[in-house]
Specification:
Layout lengths: L2 H13 L5 E5 L11 H5 L5 E6 L8 E2 L5 H4 L5 E7 L8 H11 E12 L17 H7 L4 E8 L11 E7 L3
Parallel strand pairs: 1-2, 1-4, 2-3, 4-5
Antiparallel strand pairs: 5-7, 6-7
Length: 171
């Protein structure tokens, strides 16, 4: 996760209460010098589960996001979060659908992804870059959605480095 992703989570926490169960999709920590989603949220919730395709101290279960339905129940989590992960997923749309499925009605989903101006970073592969319209589709039918763009050093917002969004699944 980039520093701005952590800032985005803090912005979410400033205006929303979080409790219950959290699922982080893509929890392996590549940037230990930046507070991870786990570090920002773990003490605020009842249970925090991090999944990733690769083992790591920040990964509770080694699970592909495509297999969420095999390991968790529908509507099981109050918050589902994925930061800078979907670009490494060959079929990110399957993971997003599973994230939506395991989210409780009234629960929140937070997603951050790189956009056009973000450079290649293979961990282990880097397949995608996202546009605002595409990220909006992740939250189709959701309520209270918010999307923010980020550019490095005041770059052109038409070519953002990062897209960050949250939304609430309807009751």
């Amino acid at each position: 996760m980039i520093k701005e992703g952590g800032d985005f989570i803090l912005k979410f926490l400033d205006s929303h209460s979080v409790e219950g169960r959290v699922l982080e999709v893509g929890s392996r920590d590549f940037t230990p010098h930046i507070p991870s989603a786990r570090k920002l949220l773990k003490d605020k919730v009842d249970e925090y589960i991090g999944i990733d395709m690769w083992p790591d101290p920040s990964v509770d279960k080694v699970i592909d996001g495509h297999d969420i339905k095999k390991y968790f129940k529908e509507g099981e989590f109050d918050l589902v979060i994925s930061t800078d992960t979907l670009e490494h997923d060959k079929a990110f749309w399957l993971t997003v659908e599973n994230m939506r499925w395991t989210l409780k009605p009234g629960g929140w989903m937070i997603i951050t992804v790189p956009s056009l101006h973000c450079g290649l970073h293979e961990h282990p592969k880097d397949y995608w870059r996202f546009m605002q319209e595409g990220v909006g589709e992740f939250f189709e039918g959701f309520e209270d959605c918010y999307l923010e763009t980020f550019t490095i050093a005041g770059g052109d917002l038409a070519y953002p480095d990062e897209l960050m969004a949250w939304g609430r699944k309807p009751l």
